[in-house]
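Project standup — Tuesday

K.O.: blocked on the structure for the chain from last sprint. Re-posting the sequence here as requested.
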Amino acid sequence: MRAINISNDRSRNAQVGFEQKALSRNVRYIREDGQAHRNVRVLKSTMPTNFGSLISDHGNELVDRIIASDPEIDFERVGLFLSRVKKVFLTPEGKVAYRVSRKHVFYSPTGEVKDERKYHTPEANINIELPLRWTGKLIPKDKAARMFVFTRGYQLRHINGLTFDFLYDMAKKLHDQNSVMLLGAGSKGAGPVVLSTGGTPYRAFIEGRIDGDKYCLILHLTNLELKPIYI
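H.V.: unblocked you, prediction finished:
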């Protein structure tokens, strides 16, 4: 279980645990013969058979070539099962790129490029000396669900009796107000949350639920905001 340093509404902080809970499915898929199915990765195509390579090799004769000899299919490799794969960057010519210049591209709601900035590797900030802070910005749950696309969720866990009381109190306050609280990183509590070095910066919201003397505190992460488009 990983550790996270978080503060409450009174600026009291503690190091607690957090983990992602696996979802169990009640539905089981089977084949007609009663055997259980399994997901696999298969090879879809190879570099010589992609559209760009075919156009480069055959030009205007591509249609006739496809009818005559199926050059778009690698019969020896397509359909092979894949196990361990690695991501690589390619040049426009399909060669492995060993030097890659990465950048951040920002788009408007209509898909237009708004800004481009040099890519930098963000440092993890969930378990450092400065805790994640309550910003004081409460958003009702139903409103937050319509404003953001939450892509990840983690459950905060106590590690001893003192942190149980600490987290239970946070969960109760949020439960009573039926709202989520925006968290922020940094000295002013205004920065995004980064789980691991080189990871994606997220907006973080915390949700609390209680049932008697039991609590559930959930850290919701999002980097997608829903905005109306007026045409």
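K.O.: great, moving the ticket to review. The first helix runs from residue 51 to 58. Helices lie at 51-58, 62-69, 141-147, 161-177.
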